[in-house]
Specification:
about 230 residues; alpha+beta; Cytidine Deaminase, domain 2; 2 domains; five-stranded mixed sheet; 10 helices; 5 strands; elongated
Length: about 230
């Protein structure tokens, strides 16, 4: 049993006592991370290891979410087992953010509405993905789906697959999105070219392409808002 006097505990046990006696909301980031790390090494406590990890990324949880097993193992006291626990905890957080049980089928009437639907799908990705929202005539969501997965620098988009799915959903309009892991918000020429190609294909099927979002972390750029469509 832990002592109720936190100052009497080992450094690595203090976050657990705070969690038990005061609640999770009273834990600092380094204390939450220390609980996952579990225990320290002779020269460094779990809290110290957590502090060193967070200081390296300026306490940016988005950057932490992109860590790989190798990234964690660059820190003293973190081996394969502890790195795996940290990766699993971060992935649980990402999946919780992506878990969506709407009480009603949402309408998508602005780039912000689209961003809110897309953002959990792109959370913490270190590679590019291309997604599409299918909408009916009332701008109500029919389906959101991933079209392709690529590497750090790009992903291949099959226009035929987009419209095969859109026709199957009887969609009236589409909203496109892909992410830039580099953090660059400005669309590349390839981004502009594929957007134009999809818009032109949509005209043949009488399916409007309403927007294309470039997702960068917790922000985005909208082709429609910028007048690039």
């Amino acid at each position: 049993m832990y002592s109720t006097k936190i100052s009497a505990l080992r450094v690595e046990d203090r976050p657990r006592e705070i969690l038990a006696s005061q609640g999770k909301e009273f834990l600092r980031l380094e204390e939450l991370l220390a609980i996952l790390i579990g225990s320290g090494i002779p020269s460094l406590s779990a809290l110290g290891i957590a502090q060193s990890i967070l200081e390296t990324i300026d306490f940016d949880l988005n950057r932490l979410g992109q860590f790989t097993t190798s990234d964690f193992m660059n820190f003293r006291g973190i081996g394969v087992a502890r790195a795996s626990i940290l990766i699993a905890a971060l992935e649980l957080g990402r999946r919780r953010a992506a878990f969506h049980l709407p009480t009603d089928i949402p309408f998508v009437r602005s780039s912000k509405d689209a961003f809110d639907l897309f953002q959990p799908k792109f959370l913490d990705l270190g590679h590019e993905e291309f997604w599409v929202i299918h909408l009916n005539r009332a701008a109500r969501l029919l389906k959101i789906e991933r079209i392709s997965t690529g590497g750090i620098a790009g992903t291949v988009v099959d226009v035929k697959m987009i419209f095969k799915s859109a026709i199957g959903q009887q969609a009236s309009s589409l909203i496109l999105a892909h992410n830039h892991p580099s953090g660059q918000k400005k669309p590349s020429q390839a981004d502009r070219d594929i957007t134009k190609k999809i818009v032109e294909a949509g005209r043949l099927f009488e399916i409007a392409v309403a927007d294309h979002l470039i997702m960068v972390g917790n922000t985005y750029v909208s082709f429609a808002d910028e007048g690039w469509m």
